[in-house]
Design goal:
It is built from 9 helices and no strands. By secondary structure, it is mainly alpha-helical.
Length: 174
């Protein structure tokens, strides 16, 4: 990113190749909409280019990237509060990391669909911390940087969110 900041904007393609799937996964898990998630990934990379002067290189690139992604997501949610959403987990298996529910069989695909329904029932704050920790596999210290909080606070939030997710999942399953 420092090279992009210095004017070598061709390097943006390399950043896109490295990080677009992670961003898509984060945004998809937050929204449950593939079409919107794809558009938002593009918006994040546009903002990276537009605001490249704000990247100092002092912190990790991914932390800065997720700050931008959170801002893009917040803007989208503000504009589309009343939009209905629909989740098609099997159709998005090629975009999401961690394996393909369609290839693993119908039962696993149904479990994944239930998980996504349960995630959608969580508050945006709890959903975000779980997506970052479990789906994006970020360390608590990095999540704390992204969320501008302490590592201890992240641990507490993840624990509470997992309990809320478990409750929501069991309600849907029964």
């Amino acid at each position: 990113m420092l090279r992009v900041k210095a004017g070598d904007v061709d390097r943006m393609g390399l950043l896109f190749e490295r990080y677009h799937r992670q961003l898509f996964g984060f945004l998809y898990h937050m929204l449950g909409r593939a079409d919107a998630s794809e558009d938002l990934v593009q918006n994040v990379f546009y903002r990276m280019l537009k605001y490249r002067h704000t990247f100092t290189g002092d912190g990790e690139f991914r932390t800065w990237m997720y700050h931008l992604a959170r801002n893009v997501l917040a803007d989208y949610i503000k504009k589309n509060r009343h939009a209905a959403h629909h989740t098609d987990v099997a159709a998005m298996a090629d975009h999401l990391g961690g394996g393909s529910p369609a290839d693993a069989g119908l039962e696993q695909a149904q479990d994944v669909a239930l998980l996504h329904q349960a995630l959608a029932k969580l508050s945006p704050e709890n959903r975000e911390v779980l997506v970052l920790s479990r789906f994006q596999e970020m360390k608590y210290a990095r999540i704390a940087q992204v969320l501008n909080t302490t590592e201890g606070a992240v641990k507490v939030r993840v624990h509470r969110a997992m309990n809320e997710l478990k409750t929501a999942y069991l309600r849907i399953e029964n």
